[in-house]
Design goal:
25% of the residues lie in helices and 21% in strands. By secondary structure, the protein is an alpha/beta fold. Strands 2-1-15 form a three-stranded mixed beta sheet. The radius of gyration is 21 Å and the shape is globular.
Length: 343
Protein backbone atom coordinates (compact mmCIF):
# COMPACT_ATOMS: atom_id res chain seq x y z
CA UNK A 1 0.00 0.00 0.00
CA UNK A 2 1.19 3.51 -0.79
CA UNK A 3 2.20 5.65 2.19
CA UNK A 4 0.71 8.56 0.28
CA UNK A 5 -2.80 7.22 -0.26
CA UNK A 6 -4.84 6.39 2.87
CA UNK A 7 -7.45 3.65 2.66
CA UNK A 8 -9.76 5.25 5.26
CA UNK A 9 -11.07 8.78 5.72
CA UNK A 10 -13.04 10.97 8.10
CA UNK A 11 -15.94 13.08 6.81
CA UNK A 12 -18.14 15.45 8.82
CA UNK A 13 -21.83 15.72 7.94
CA UNK A 14 -22.55 19.32 8.89
CA UNK A 15 -26.28 20.00 9.19
CA UNK A 16 -25.75 23.76 9.49
CA UNK A 17 -23.28 24.39 6.66
CA UNK A 18 -23.06 27.93 5.26
CA UNK A 19 -20.10 29.88 3.81
CA UNK A 20 -18.27 31.13 6.88
CA UNK A 21 -18.23 34.97 7.09
CA UNK A 22 -15.28 34.80 9.49
CA UNK A 23 -13.01 33.32 6.80
CA UNK A 24 -14.09 35.40 3.81
CA UNK A 25 -11.48 38.12 4.34
CA UNK A 26 -8.49 36.03 3.23
CA UNK A 27 -10.20 33.26 1.23
CA UNK A 28 -10.45 34.51 -2.35
CA UNK A 29 -12.15 31.25 -3.35
CA UNK A 30 -15.16 31.81 -1.12
CA UNK A 31 -18.51 32.93 -2.53
CA UNK A 32 -21.98 33.80 -1.26
CA UNK A 33 -24.93 31.47 -1.61
CA UNK A 34 -27.30 32.30 -4.48
CA UNK A 35 -29.55 35.28 -3.81
CA UNK A 36 -32.79 34.25 -2.17
CA UNK A 37 -31.54 30.83 -1.10
CA UNK A 38 -32.22 30.27 2.58
CA UNK A 39 -29.57 28.99 4.98
CA UNK A 40 -31.70 25.88 5.50
CA UNK A 41 -31.71 25.18 1.77
CA UNK A 42 -27.96 25.75 1.57
CA UNK A 43 -27.36 23.35 4.45
CA UNK A 44 -29.66 20.71 2.96
CA UNK A 45 -27.88 20.85 -0.38
CA UNK A 46 -24.48 20.62 1.32
CA UNK A 47 -25.56 17.54 3.29
CA UNK A 48 -26.73 15.85 0.10
CA UNK A 49 -23.36 16.63 -1.52
CA UNK A 50 -21.45 15.24 1.44
CA UNK A 51 -23.57 12.08 1.41
CA UNK A 52 -22.84 11.70 -2.31
CA UNK A 53 -19.09 11.97 -1.66
CA UNK A 54 -19.26 9.37 1.11
CA UNK A 55 -21.17 7.00 -1.16
CA UNK A 56 -18.77 7.53 -4.08
CA UNK A 57 -15.77 6.74 -1.86
CA UNK A 58 -17.41 3.65 -0.38
CA UNK A 59 -18.27 2.50 -3.89
CA UNK A 60 -14.56 2.30 -4.76
CA UNK A 61 -13.69 0.50 -1.53
CA UNK A 62 -12.49 3.36 0.67
CA UNK A 63 -13.44 3.01 4.36
CA UNK A 64 -15.44 6.10 5.37
CA UNK A 65 -16.08 7.29 8.94
CA UNK A 66 -18.87 9.88 9.02
CA UNK A 67 -19.47 12.15 12.02
CA UNK A 68 -22.65 14.18 12.25
CA UNK A 69 -22.42 17.80 13.36
CA UNK A 70 -25.61 19.61 14.39
CA UNK A 71 -23.85 22.66 15.87
CA UNK A 72 -24.97 25.78 13.97
CA UNK A 73 -21.95 27.70 15.28
CA UNK A 74 -19.55 25.55 13.22
CA UNK A 75 -20.30 26.48 9.59
CA UNK A 76 -16.98 25.09 8.31
CA UNK A 77 -16.93 21.79 10.20
CA UNK A 78 -17.33 19.93 6.89
CA UNK A 79 -13.57 20.56 6.45
CA UNK A 80 -11.94 18.41 9.20
CA UNK A 81 -8.56 18.21 7.48
CA UNK A 82 -7.74 21.65 8.88
CA UNK A 83 -7.72 20.55 12.52
CA UNK A 84 -6.46 16.95 12.49
CA UNK A 85 -3.96 14.83 10.57
CA UNK A 86 -2.71 11.29 11.05
CA UNK A 87 0.65 9.76 10.27
CA UNK A 88 2.17 6.33 9.76
CA UNK A 89 3.61 4.92 12.96
CA UNK A 90 0.66 5.95 15.10
CA UNK A 91 0.95 9.75 15.36
CA UNK A 92 -1.91 12.23 15.30
CA UNK A 93 -1.59 16.02 15.11
CA UNK A 94 -4.15 18.60 16.24
CA UNK A 95 -3.75 22.11 14.88
CA UNK A 96 -4.27 25.78 15.79
CA UNK A 97 -6.99 27.42 13.69
CA UNK A 98 -7.03 30.98 12.32
CA UNK A 99 -10.76 31.77 12.55
CA UNK A 100 -11.98 31.78 16.15
CA UNK A 101 -15.34 30.23 15.20
CA UNK A 102 -13.52 27.21 13.73
CA UNK A 103 -11.56 26.31 16.85
CA UNK A 104 -14.35 24.28 18.43
CA UNK A 105 -14.51 22.05 15.35
CA UNK A 106 -11.91 19.94 17.16
CA UNK A 107 -13.77 16.92 18.49
CA UNK A 108 -12.84 14.46 21.20
CA UNK A 109 -15.12 11.80 19.67
CA UNK A 110 -13.10 11.82 16.45
CA UNK A 111 -9.88 11.31 18.40
CA UNK A 112 -11.50 8.58 20.50
CA UNK A 113 -12.60 6.76 17.35
CA UNK A 114 -9.05 6.91 16.01
CA UNK A 115 -7.67 5.53 19.26
CA UNK A 116 -10.22 2.72 19.44
CA UNK A 117 -10.17 1.58 15.81
CA UNK A 118 -6.59 2.39 14.80
CA UNK A 119 -3.17 2.11 16.41
CA UNK A 120 -2.48 5.55 17.88
CA UNK A 121 0.75 5.97 19.83
CA UNK A 122 0.75 9.71 20.41
CA UNK A 123 -1.33 12.83 19.88
CA UNK A 124 0.59 16.08 19.43
CA UNK A 125 -1.65 19.07 20.11
CA UNK A 126 -0.55 22.47 18.76
CA UNK A 127 -3.87 24.19 19.46
CA UNK A 128 -2.47 25.88 22.56
CA UNK A 129 -0.59 28.23 20.22
CA UNK A 130 -3.81 30.03 19.22
CA UNK A 131 -3.59 32.66 22.00
CA UNK A 132 -0.16 33.58 20.60
CA UNK A 133 -1.73 34.34 17.22
CA UNK A 134 0.15 31.65 15.30
CA UNK A 135 -1.66 29.07 13.21
CA UNK A 136 -1.07 26.02 11.05
CA UNK A 137 -4.27 24.65 9.58
CA UNK A 138 -3.34 21.03 9.06
CA UNK A 139 -3.32 19.53 5.60
CA UNK A 140 -4.98 22.64 4.27
CA UNK A 141 -1.94 24.73 5.17
CA UNK A 142 0.48 21.92 4.29
CA UNK A 143 0.46 19.48 1.39
CA UNK A 144 2.42 16.53 2.69
CA UNK A 145 4.59 14.19 0.70
CA UNK A 146 4.38 11.20 3.04
CA UNK A 147 6.87 9.23 0.94
CA UNK A 148 9.76 11.71 0.78
CA UNK A 149 8.67 13.44 4.02
CA UNK A 150 8.29 16.96 2.63
CA UNK A 151 5.77 19.55 3.86
CA UNK A 152 4.98 21.93 0.97
CA UNK A 153 3.55 25.10 2.48
CA UNK A 154 2.38 28.40 1.00
CA UNK A 155 2.93 31.13 3.59
CA UNK A 156 -0.24 32.82 4.83
CA UNK A 157 -2.09 33.87 7.98
CA UNK A 158 -3.00 30.22 8.31
CA UNK A 159 0.51 28.79 7.93
CA UNK A 160 3.00 30.24 10.39
CA UNK A 161 6.63 29.43 9.61
CA UNK A 162 7.57 28.79 13.25
CA UNK A 163 4.75 26.29 13.78
CA UNK A 164 5.65 24.64 10.48
CA UNK A 165 9.24 24.16 11.68
CA UNK A 166 7.97 22.74 14.95
CA UNK A 167 5.63 20.30 13.17
CA UNK A 168 8.41 19.20 10.83
CA UNK A 169 10.76 18.59 13.74
CA UNK A 170 8.15 16.59 15.64
CA UNK A 171 7.00 14.54 12.65
CA UNK A 172 10.28 14.36 10.71
CA UNK A 173 9.29 16.27 7.57
CA UNK A 174 11.41 18.60 5.50
CA UNK A 175 9.76 22.04 5.41
CA UNK A 176 9.43 23.60 1.97
CA UNK A 177 7.76 26.98 2.41
CA UNK A 178 7.14 29.44 -0.40
CA UNK A 179 4.96 32.41 -1.31
CA UNK A 180 2.04 31.79 -3.65
CA UNK A 181 -0.27 34.50 -4.96
CA UNK A 182 -3.03 34.91 -7.53
CA UNK A 183 -2.92 37.33 -10.46
CA UNK A 184 -4.17 40.12 -8.17
CA UNK A 185 -1.29 39.55 -5.77
CA UNK A 186 -3.55 37.99 -3.10
CA UNK A 187 -1.77 35.26 -1.12
CA UNK A 188 -3.19 31.75 -1.48
CA UNK A 189 -4.97 31.01 1.79
CA UNK A 190 -4.35 27.23 1.81
CA UNK A 191 -1.66 25.27 0.00
CA UNK A 192 -4.04 22.43 -0.79
CA UNK A 193 -6.03 24.56 -3.23
CA UNK A 194 -2.98 24.87 -5.51
CA UNK A 195 -1.27 21.50 -5.02
CA UNK A 196 -2.05 17.79 -4.70
CA UNK A 197 0.56 15.06 -4.29
CA UNK A 198 -0.23 11.46 -5.14
CA UNK A 199 1.94 8.36 -5.23
CA UNK A 200 3.03 8.74 -8.86
CA UNK A 201 1.51 12.07 -9.90
CA UNK A 202 1.50 15.62 -8.54
CA UNK A 203 -0.77 18.47 -9.59
CA UNK A 204 0.42 21.98 -8.80
CA UNK A 205 0.07 25.56 -10.01
CA UNK A 206 3.76 26.37 -10.15
CA UNK A 207 2.99 29.61 -11.99
CA UNK A 208 1.39 30.99 -8.81
CA UNK A 209 4.81 30.91 -7.08
CA UNK A 210 6.20 34.34 -8.09
CA UNK A 211 9.81 33.71 -7.06
CA UNK A 212 11.26 31.94 -10.09
CA UNK A 213 14.13 30.38 -8.16
CA UNK A 214 11.84 29.00 -5.46
CA UNK A 215 9.40 27.80 -8.12
CA UNK A 216 12.12 25.71 -9.74
CA UNK A 217 13.21 24.35 -6.37
CA UNK A 218 9.65 23.15 -5.71
CA UNK A 219 9.46 21.63 -9.19
CA UNK A 220 12.78 19.86 -8.72
CA UNK A 221 11.83 18.56 -5.26
CA UNK A 222 8.64 17.06 -6.68
CA UNK A 223 10.30 15.66 -9.79
CA UNK A 224 13.18 13.94 -7.98
CA UNK A 225 10.69 11.37 -6.67
CA UNK A 226 9.88 10.34 -10.25
CA UNK A 227 6.32 11.65 -10.10
CA UNK A 228 4.59 12.96 -13.20
CA UNK A 229 3.96 16.68 -12.65
CA UNK A 230 0.69 18.05 -13.99
CA UNK A 231 0.96 21.83 -14.09
CA UNK A 232 -2.29 23.65 -13.38
CA UNK A 233 -3.24 27.17 -14.42
CA UNK A 234 -4.68 29.79 -12.10
CA UNK A 235 -7.99 29.44 -13.96
CA UNK A 236 -8.02 25.71 -13.16
CA UNK A 237 -7.15 26.45 -9.54
CA UNK A 238 -10.21 28.69 -9.32
CA UNK A 239 -12.20 25.66 -10.45
CA UNK A 240 -10.62 23.69 -7.55
CA UNK A 241 -8.52 21.45 -9.80
CA UNK A 242 -5.72 21.46 -7.23
CA UNK A 243 -7.98 20.51 -4.33
CA UNK A 244 -7.87 16.75 -4.87
CA UNK A 245 -6.56 13.81 -2.87
CA UNK A 246 -5.32 10.33 -3.73
CA UNK A 247 -6.89 7.47 -1.79
CA UNK A 248 -6.49 3.70 -1.80
CA UNK A 249 -9.69 1.75 -2.33
CA UNK A 250 -10.48 -1.88 -3.11
CA UNK A 251 -12.00 -3.61 -6.10
CA UNK A 252 -14.94 -5.99 -5.46
CA UNK A 253 -12.47 -8.90 -5.50
CA UNK A 254 -10.25 -7.23 -2.90
CA UNK A 255 -7.43 -5.82 -5.04
CA UNK A 256 -6.04 -2.36 -4.34
CA UNK A 257 -7.22 0.48 -6.54
CA UNK A 258 -5.81 4.00 -6.37
CA UNK A 259 -8.29 6.81 -6.91
CA UNK A 260 -7.96 10.60 -7.21
CA UNK A 261 -10.95 12.18 -5.49
CA UNK A 262 -11.96 15.62 -6.75
CA UNK A 263 -15.07 17.61 -7.55
CA UNK A 264 -16.89 17.36 -10.86
CA UNK A 265 -16.17 21.06 -11.36
CA UNK A 266 -12.45 20.39 -10.90
CA UNK A 267 -12.45 17.51 -13.37
CA UNK A 268 -14.30 19.56 -15.99
CA UNK A 269 -11.51 22.15 -15.88
CA UNK A 270 -8.78 19.62 -16.71
CA UNK A 271 -7.56 19.22 -20.25
CA UNK A 272 -7.71 15.72 -21.80
CA UNK A 273 -3.94 15.27 -21.59
CA UNK A 274 -4.00 16.21 -17.88
CA UNK A 275 -6.74 13.68 -17.21
CA UNK A 276 -4.72 11.06 -19.09
CA UNK A 277 -1.60 11.83 -17.01
CA UNK A 278 -3.55 11.40 -13.77
CA UNK A 279 -5.25 8.22 -14.94
CA UNK A 280 -1.92 6.56 -15.71
CA UNK A 281 -1.63 5.84 -11.98
CA UNK A 282 -5.11 6.25 -10.52
CA UNK A 283 -8.74 6.55 -11.57
CA UNK A 284 -10.55 9.82 -11.04
CA UNK A 285 -13.59 9.83 -8.76
CA UNK A 286 -15.45 13.11 -9.31
CA UNK A 287 -18.44 14.27 -7.27
CA UNK A 288 -20.51 17.40 -7.83
CA UNK A 289 -20.35 19.60 -4.68
CA UNK A 290 -21.18 23.16 -5.84
CA UNK A 291 -22.75 24.19 -2.52
CA UNK A 292 -19.82 23.12 -0.37
CA UNK A 293 -17.44 24.82 -2.80
CA UNK A 294 -19.12 28.14 -1.94
CA UNK A 295 -17.07 27.98 1.28
CA UNK A 296 -13.83 28.16 -0.69
CA UNK A 297 -12.82 24.52 -0.33
CA UNK A 298 -13.51 21.38 -2.30
CA UNK A 299 -13.17 17.61 -2.01
CA UNK A 300 -9.65 17.60 -0.55
CA UNK A 301 -10.71 19.96 2.23
CA UNK A 302 -13.59 17.64 3.15
CA UNK A 303 -11.35 14.62 3.69
CA UNK A 304 -9.15 13.88 6.67
CA UNK A 305 -7.13 10.86 5.59
CA UNK A 306 -6.29 8.11 8.09
CA UNK A 307 -2.64 7.03 7.70
CA UNK A 308 -2.79 4.64 10.65
CA UNK A 309 -2.75 0.86 11.02
CA UNK A 310 -6.17 -0.54 11.80
CA UNK A 311 -6.79 -2.48 14.99
CA UNK A 312 -8.35 -5.93 14.58
CA UNK A 313 -12.06 -6.04 15.50
CA UNK A 314 -12.56 -6.89 19.16
CA UNK A 315 -14.21 -10.19 18.28
CA UNK A 316 -11.00 -11.28 16.57
CA UNK A 317 -8.65 -10.07 19.28
CA UNK A 318 -7.29 -12.94 21.36
CA UNK A 319 -6.82 -12.30 25.06
CA UNK A 320 -3.65 -13.56 26.68
CA UNK A 321 -3.87 -15.58 29.89
CA UNK A 322 -2.69 -12.56 31.84
CA UNK A 323 -5.42 -10.35 30.41
CA UNK A 324 -8.04 -13.03 30.97
CA UNK A 325 -6.95 -13.29 34.60
CA UNK A 326 -7.76 -9.63 35.25
CA UNK A 327 -10.94 -9.69 33.18
CA UNK A 328 -12.92 -11.83 35.62
CA UNK A 329 -16.67 -11.44 35.55
CA UNK A 330 -16.86 -11.10 39.34
CA UNK A 331 -13.51 -9.74 40.54
CA UNK A 332 -12.93 -9.88 44.28
CA UNK A 333 -10.54 -7.68 46.26
CA UNK A 334 -8.12 -9.11 48.88
CA UNK A 335 -10.60 -8.34 51.69
CA UNK A 336 -13.22 -10.53 50.04
CA UNK A 337 -15.40 -7.68 48.76
CA UNK A 338 -16.54 -7.44 45.16
CA UNK A 339 -15.07 -4.61 43.12
CA UNK A 340 -18.52 -3.17 42.43
CA UNK A 341 -19.00 -2.65 46.16
CA UNK A 342 -22.18 -4.75 46.44
CA UNK A 343 -20.62 -7.55 48.51
Amino acid sequence: MSAQAPSAVILVRATSFVPNPATAADNAFQADAPAGQTEQATSARAMAEMDALAEALRAVGVRVHVFDDDDHTRPDSVFPNNWVSTHAGGAVAVYPMYASNRRHERRADVLEMLKSEYRVQTIVDYSGLEPDGVFLEGTGAMVLDHVSRVAYTARSHRADAAVLERFCTDFTYEPMAFDAVDSDGVPVYHTNVIACIGTDVAMIALGMIPDEHRREQVRERLAVTGRTIVELTEEQIREFAGNAVELCGRTPDGRRRYVMAMSARAKRSLRPEQVAAIEESCEIVAVDIPTIELAGGSVRCMIAGIHLDRRPPLAQAELTEAVEAINEDNPVTPDGRYVDGNA
